[in-house]
Design a protein that fits this description.
The complex is a heterodimer.
Chain A lengths: L4 E3 L2 E4 L5 E6 L6 E7 L6 E7 L2 E4 L8 E4 L6 E5 L8 E8 L7 E2 L3 E5 L1
Parallel strand pairs in A: 2-11
Antiparallel strand pairs in A: 1-3, 3-8, 4-5, 4-9, 5-6, 7-8, 9-10, 9-11
Chain B lengths: L3 E3 L2 E5 L4 E7 L6 E7 L5 E8 L4 E4 L2 E6 L4 E6 L8 E8 L5 E3 L3 E6 L1
Classes of the chains: A mainly beta, B mainly beta.
Chain lengths: 113, 110
């Protein structure tokens, strides 16, 4: 079974630039999560989708971050404009509806300079 | 809001047992998890426990849950150098949200 795929693996941008990350969840997984993991900290949930609807985005900085999940499959997370404090690993995870396990991708490491 | 706390660091000798502790605040948690993260890798689910259980054993891993004190622990028996990693405790609360602790770095000395 293929895992959660994310791209790119690494991205370096200058502050005030824009960046987008892509996630392809495990086939059939209805729930998709985006997490931000700052170096030395645990992952923090940014947004959770159930199919193509948003379940929770209370911790998403909506002035600069946006996410969508068209057709309830792939998802993109965008930051516009980026700030230095956005430097982190962005993790995507997916799970089957009603199932306990969430599977994580390898993440995208973003460095804002 | 929900809060999950872990100690930052644990060092053990190869062959010893490791015990990683975690406390949480959300009394409505349904499941509690332990994830492992190796350098440059994503999070790997090690094990989980349902909130109405107090113990779960899976090969070298033993999870203990004290729901009254909101305390979770992960015991790794016969710790190996390959167990060196960061271990995250997480709890699933309302809306199926996963809240993670800050992670415990386990260092295993040969």
């Amino acid at each position: 079974e293929a895992g959660v795929a994310q791209s790119p693996r690494y991205k370096i941008i200058e502050k005030r630039q824009s960046v987008a990350f892509w996630c392809n969840p495990i086939s059939g997984h209805a729930t998709l999560y985006w997490y931000q993991q700052i170096l030395g900290q645990g992952p923090k949930l940014l947004i959770q989708f159930q199919n193509n609807g948003v379940v929770d985005d209370s911790q998403l900085p909506k002035d600069r971050f946006s996410a969508e999940r068209l057709k309830g499959v792939d998802s993109t997370l965008k930051i516009q404009p980026a700030k230095l404090e956005d430097s982190a690993v962005y993790l995507c995870a997916s799970s089957e509806q009603g199932v306990t396990e969430a599977f994580f991708g390898q993440g995208t490491r973003l460095t804002v300079v | 809001g929900e809060d999950v706390e872990q100690s930052l660091f644990l060092s053990v000798r190869e062959g010893d047992s490791s015990v990683i502790n975690c406390t949480y605040t959300d009394s409505s948690s349904t499941y509690l998890y332990w994830y492992k993260q190796e350098p440059g890798a994503g999070l790997q689910l090690l094990t989980y426990i349902f909130s109405n259980m107090d113990m779960k054993q899976d090969q070298r891993l033993t999870v203990l849950l004290n729901k009254k004190d909101k305390h979770l622990s992960l015991r790794i028996a016969d710790t190996q150098t390959g167990d060196s990693a960061i271990y995250f405790c997480a709890e699933k609360g309302a809306g199926n949200m996963l809240t993670f602790g800050g992670g415990t770095r386990l260092m295993v000395k040969p």
